[in-house]
Design brief:
The chain is of the alpha+beta class. It has two domains: 80 residues, Beta-grasp domain (Ubiquitin-like (UB roll), Roll), CATH 3.10.20; 85 residues, DNA polymerase, domain 1, CATH 1.10.150. Helices cover 26% and strands 17% of the residues. The strands form two sheets. It has a five-stranded mixed beta sheet, with helices on both faces. A hairpin with a 2-residue loop joins strand 1 and strand 2. Helix 2 packs antiparallel against helix 5. Bound molecules: FE2/S2 (inorganic) cluster (2 copies).
């Protein structure tokens, strides 16, 4: 879907780019300045990747490109030929739910949810190369992802739970609901 203020596409000014997104092969005609973020959201309808600042400051647009986290708003689609993109839509759903999705749910790491896809992809890229990162490493890996809701603690907890370096919360009954019990303080804070 073109953006409302997009100029008419001049076929002669476009390049054909073929790459994979979440394992599916895509071929898209793009103007040279079109970003990967625009292609994902407006050409491929993959709107899980968020468009926040659009200038590299917030991390909401983070996707994984050839195994590394990148800001899709600063990545030219024309440079993605032959490469592999993973977006939040590529994280496994039930029955083999990605542990990060489960852990984000348990800790309340997604509140308004705007930062969540970018956080998840930064965390996914980290765990792929470093399955048991320290809290400090998690904090560093997610330092380019801004969140205005959570205070970051539940997000760090969730990544540790997904990595198995922290036990998942037990569940307690609250009225007719079964909800995760509050996590004990992080070990680094109980000393
Ligand atoms: S939208 Fe890309 S960094 Fe904010
Ligand atoms: S959950 Fe709202 S910005 Fe992070």
């Amino acid at each position: 879907m073109p953006l409302p203020d997009d100029p008419p596409v001049d076929a002669a000014a476009t390049v054909l780019v073929a790459f994979t997104v979440n394992g599916d092969r895509c071929e898209v005609a793009v103007r040279p300045g079109r970003t990967l973020l625009e292609v994902l959201r407006y050409d491929l309808d993959l709107v899980g990747t968020k468009q926040g600042c659009d200038e590299g400051d917030c991390g909401a647009c983070t996707v994984i490109l050839d195994g590394r986290p990148v800001l899709a708003c600063l990545t030219l689609a024309a440079n993605c030929g032959g490469r592999a993109v993973q977006t939040v839509e590529g994280l496994a759903g039930p029955p083999d739910l990605d542990p990060l999705l489960d852990a984000f749910d348990c800790t309340g790491a997604g509140q308004c949810g705007f930062c969540t896809p970018g956080m998840l992809m930064s965390a996914k890229a980290l765990l792929a190369v470093e399955p048991k990162p320290s809290r400090e490493r998690i904090r560093h890996a997610l330092s380019g992802n801004l969140c205005r809701c959570t205070g970051y603690g539940p997000i760090m907890d969730a990544v540790e739970i997904a990595a198995g370096t922290r036990p998942a919360p037990s569940f307690v009954t609250a009225g007719e609901e079964c909800i995760p019990a509050p996590l004990p303080p992080h070990p680094s804070r109980s000393k």
